[in-house]
Task: structure prediction
Amino acid sequence: MHIVVLIKQVPDTQEVKIDPEKNTIVRAGVESIVNPFDMNATELALQLREQYGGKVTVITMGPPQAAMALKETFSMGVDRVILLQDRGFAASDTLATSYVLAQGIKRLEADGEKVDLVICGKQAVDGDTAQTGPGVACRLSFDQITYVTQVDKIDLDARTIVARRRLAKGVQVVQAQLPALLTVEKDINEPRYATLRGIIASERAKVIEWCAADIKADAEQIGFKGSPTWVKRIFTPPPREGGPKFDGPDAVKKALEVVLDNQHFKEAVFGEEGVCKR
Amino acid sequence: MEETFDLVIVGGGPAGMSAAIVAARAGIKTIVIERGEFPGSKNVYGGVVYVHEIEKILPDFWKDKTAPIERIITDSRIVFANDHGAMQVGYKTDRFSDPPNVITTHRAKWDRWYANKAKEAGVLIVNNTVVEEVLRESTGKVIGVRTGRPDGDLHCKLVIFADGAQSPLLVRAGIRKEVKAEHVALSVKETIQLSEEEVTKRFGTKPGEGVTFEILGSLADKMDGVAIMYTNKDTVSLGIGANLEQWKKSKVTPYEMIDKLKEHPMIKPLVDGGQTKEYVAHWLPEGGYDTIPKLYGNGYLLCGDTAMLFNALHREGTNLAQETGRLAGEMAVRAIKEGDTSERMLSEYDANVKNSFVLRDMRKYRKFPHLLFNNPMIFQTLPDVVGDMIEEMLLVDGKSKKEKQKIIVRNIRKKVGLCRLMGLAWRAWRSVK
Result:
C-alpha cells in the first residue's frame, strides 16, 4: 500500500502574532514546527505501513526551509520526502495549495506510483481552515473521511477502508473506497519519538524537490493568481459559554426539566413523531 | 548502513561547538548531542562575547553580516554602588571598535549561528536529545554514550563532555563530583526592551556601539551580589548574581533583587519605561581553581563550564569555554588520527590548558573565591564606604574639609573598622595579585 502524507510547516502556535494591518500571521523570528495534526497523520501512516506493508511518502509545499519539517518526519521513519517548491507557489491560499498538492500526487501516479491512501492533519494550527485536505480529495476525485479518530479496517482486495470520524454529537463509522483521503484528529495516536539512528539518517536524507514545471502546474491556478481568498478580518472567536448551572435544594429537578425539554433529547427518545420508541 | 562517528561531543554550547568545528575541519567525523531544541536554546550568560578566542576559530567573524552581533563594546564601566548612589569608573575608546574587543550578543542567536558554522564544517548536530549514560569498556575506557532516544547508543573513539556546570551525567558516571552550593553562583537576568535609538541616546554611544557595566555594592540584600548591565541593539540586559549558599541563607528571591536593582537611582533612568522581554537564570561555576576536576581520562575530555572553568572576578566564562573547547578539539584530532585515545595520550590536553591563559588566570585568582567566602560582606561594605566617603566630600553643607575628613573616618570606623578595612584591602589585593 502506498500512503502519501501531506504536511505543513507552521509557526509555533505558542508564539503566534497577527499583523494588525495586513491581517496575516507574523512569521519573522518565530520558530517553525511541523503542524501538530500532521505529526498524527504521519504516525498513522507509519502504523498502517507496519500493519499492511507498503511505503510512506511525505509531501509538503513550502519555502526551502520547509525541508526541515520533512526531515523531522523522515526521522520518524517514512520512506521518502518531497518538497514542492517554486516562487510561483508563494501566497497560495487553500484553493491554490490543494491544487499544487494534488498535482504533486498526480505526478507520483504518472511516475507509476499508484497512491492508495492520502492522510492529512485535520487542519493546520496557523490558519485553522481545514480546507486543504478536502480540497485535495476533490481535485483527485478521492473519497474522503474527515476528522478521523480511528481506522478500523483496510481491505486491500476489496479496496475499502472503514474509519470512525468525530461529529459534534457522536461518532460516525464510515466505509469508503480506496484511494481515499483521511484527515485526522489529534487523539488518533501519539506520534513516536524518533530514534537516534532515525535522526542521524534524516540529517543525511535526500529531499526530492519538484518545482511548478515538474508537477505541470498551471500558472493561473497557483500562488497569488490562483488564490481568490481575501482575508477581511482575523479575530479570536469568543470562548464557548458553558451550559446553565443549577444549585440549591431542587437543582437536580430543575436540571432534569431542562434536559427533558431539550429538542434533541425528545427526538432521540420519542422520535420525530413524538411517540416513545420503547 | 549505520553511520559511525569518531568523536561524540555532549553539549552544543560554545565549548562543545568550538571543539566540534576544530575537529570536523580536520576531517574527524563529529556528532554533537544537544538537549535543547537547538544549540543555545538552553543557554544563558551575561551577554558579552570576547572576540579574541573566536577569531582563532573564525577569523574576522565580526565582518560577517550574518553574525548576530548586537553592539560592539567601546565603553566599559565599573560601578561601586550603595543603596542610594553610585560611583563610576569607566574607560571609553575607539580602539575597541575596529577590530572589536568585546561584543554583546543574544546567546540563543549566537549559539545557533555558531552551530551553523559547525554544520558548514561538517558536524552533525542532534537536538532535543539527552545523554543519559556514559558507555565504558570493561577496562573502564569511555567508548561512547547512551542517549534517551530509542536505539540511542553511540559508540566512538573519544567523547568530549561540554554539558555545563551541573553535569548530572558526569556525576552519575563518577567522572566529576557534584558541585557544592558554595561553588556556584545563581545569576538571573532580564532583557529589557527599549528602541535602538533610545539605547544609543540613553547610554551616550555611537550607533552600533555599546557599554558594559559591572556593578558592585549593596545592591543585593545581605548578599555579595555582582550585577551587570549590558547594552544590546534595542534592549538592555540587567543581571545579578550571587553565591547559591548566600541566596539560600538570605531567602531573597531573584526577582526581588532584579526589581530592587531596577529602582536604583543610577540604573532607573537607563531602563525606565522598558518592557521586560525575557527573564532567565543560570548557574555560574565560580568555585575557581581549586574546584577544577581532572580534565581528561581514558577516552574522554572535559571543557568549559563542565570543567568549572570560570573567572569569577572578570566575569569571563564564554571565552574560557571557547578556548578549552578549541584545545579539546585539537587534542581530539591528534589522538584520533594517531589511533591513541588513552589517558596518557590525552594528558597532553591538560598540559595545553595549563599553559593557556585559561588556567594561568584561574591560578592567579586562586584565592579570590576563598576571599569572598571568608569575607562575606566585602562587596557590600567596601563600595558602601567608598560611596559614603565621596558623598560626604561632594556635599556642600558649611562644614570644613577637615571636619568632613573626620566624619569620613568616623563613618569607616563605625561600618568596618580601620584595621579591618586595611586587612580586607590587603587580602583582596593578595588574592588577585
